[in-house]
Amino acid sequence: MQTPDFFAAVPSLTLRDPLANFLGAATDGIIEYHYLDVVKLAGHSCPTVAGAYMLTHKALHNLYKNELPERGAVRVEFKDSLLNGVTGVIANVVTMLTGATLDTGFKGLGGQFDRRNLMAFDADIPLEIRFTRLDTGTQVDGAAHLRQIAMDPDIPALMQRCLQGSASTEERRLFGMKWQDRVRRILLEHGDDPTVFAIHPVTTQA
Question: Do 65 and 90 reside in the same domain of the chain?
Fold first, then answer.
């Protein structure tokens, strides 16, 4: 499988999954996810997939600080409904990385490892997504402001020609290259930019 070179430069996300450990799927339950993993899940690489990956990456590290994030131990709430815009695409990426699902996830064993009902939509929250640790109740809100990273001005016309079937082989190649360059900039040039990937700890009032 040949992919753009920058995929390998995107920071990976290492988590501990107690279920994977219990069932012997990974030593000590340690699982490492790469950007390519979510690309395979989605079937494509785009700003939405990239934003979901990086926002979840940063939210989990903010929640767990110097600990390994625990897969299956985080509740995720979305401000939008599941069917609104690209929320479903984002939710699929978040599910892969956190293990959180609505009611379709693993049902658990002996009252443990239940992954259901850890995801919700239409939440009354200020940003796009809220991540909550189940063990401590610590919460962070997050949002990916991807419109700040402008696309190449040639992309709309090239996309239209590709969709119409009138683009040449070179134009199709150029479109894909320019499309992925924006993804690269989002992940590698703005991955640590708090104005693009906003993470706000939630403070509870006494």
Answer: yes
